[in-house]
Design a protein that fits this description.
alpha/beta, about 50% helix, 2-enoyl-CoA Hydratase, Chain A, domain 1, 2 domains, binds ligand LHQ
Length: about 270
């Protein structure tokens, strides 16, 4: 695991890699370097077969406060009009991150403590499972500063919580608490802060001992399903099930069932 990043920490324990966005003095707001390091960290976690589950979280009291607005305003003013100064050029770097997450053939948990605002909120949406502490605050903050939701949030948010609530969160840009986020399906679970780390660790460990290749195929099936009609979905399902059938974890799962013992999955 890389240990030489300035703003991203990577810690591996057995099959779980925890990736920590680490600029706590600005609530882990993204500067260019943290974004680059997050990309590299996710690429490495994706490549490394010993990693079977990724946890993405923030250092200190927040998950993340979105784009760092202090080093964001000036280049926009000085380079306005030029291609390089367009925000879409910068956004492409975030798009790389959300693509990496969606296509990573292993589960990613967002562990959200404190605030998740702007693009940090939408990066949490791009994780496969979200666990919130009861001090979590979700803010689609974009309209507060006259922007539109980015980082794929305009796609994922209405699909997770429905169009009405997505419009509400995006237009009003009000805070949604962890408890409310659980109620509306924005997060899978919300737990008291005191139980947060243990809950995330137990979930990550469970996933890291699961049938990793099956998990990767499940991600492909469910994410692609959002853009497919029923016939296309059934065709994809057949292809993916053919692949799943070839895994040794599938054999192990069936054998374990027949032998009435717990399965020992290797991720192969
Ligand atoms: C910050 C930030 C921050 C710098 C807190 N930057 N310092 C746009 C364009 C292009 C590409 C990518 O994506 C985007 C989309 C975006 O992400 S747009 C949304 C950007 N984020 C925001 O608008 C949120 C700005 N932050 C806030 O509204 C508040 O800080 C929240 C509600 C997140 C937290 O409030 P508090 O818990 O009261 O904390 P705080 O405001 O006191 O913040 C603590 C420190 O962190 C403070 O610094 P200081 O020196 O006063 O202690 C803040 O200035 C700093 N900070 N967010 N985005």
């Amino acid at each position: 695991m890389r240990t030489d990043f300035q703003y991203v920490l990577m810690q591996q324990e057995e099959g779980v890699v925890t990736v920590v966005m680490n600029r706590p003095e600005v609530l882990n707001a993204f500067n260019d370097q943290m974004l680059e390091e997050l990309t590299l960290a996710l690429e490495e976690a994706g490549r490394d077969d010993s990693v079977r589950c990724v946890v993405l979280t923030g250092a200190g009291r927040a998950f993340g406060a979105g784009q760092d607005l202090t080093n964001f305003v000036e280049p926009q003013q000085t380079q306005a009009g030029s291609e390089a100064g367009k925000v879409s050029v910068h956004l492409a770097k975030y798009h790389r991150v959300v693509h990496l997450m969606r296509n990573m053939p292993k589960p990613i948990i967002a562990a959200i403590r404190g605030v998740a605002a702007g693009i940090s909120c939408n990066i949490a949406l791009a994780c496969d499972i979200r666990v919130a502490a009861d001090n979590a605050r979700f803010i689609e903050a974009f309209a507060r500063i006259g922007l539109v939701p980015d980082g794929g949030g305009g796609y994922l948010l209405p699909r997770l919580i429905g169009l009405g609530r997505a419009l509400d969160m995006s237009l009003l840009a009000d805070e949604v608490s962890g408890v409310e986020a659980e109620r509306i399906g924005l997060v899978t679970t919300c737990v008291p802060l005191a139980e947060f780390e243990a809950t995330v660790a137990a979930l990550a460990k469970r996933l890291a001992h699961g049938p990793t290749r099956s998990y990767g195929l499940i991600k492909a099936l469910l994410y692609q399903s959002m853009d497919l009609n029923f016939q296309e979905l059934l065709a994809l399902e057949g292809q993916l099930q053919d692949s799943a059938r070839e895994t040794s974890d599938h054999q192990e799962g069936v054998n374990a069932f027949l032998q009435k013992r717990p399965a020992r999955y290797t991720g192969k």
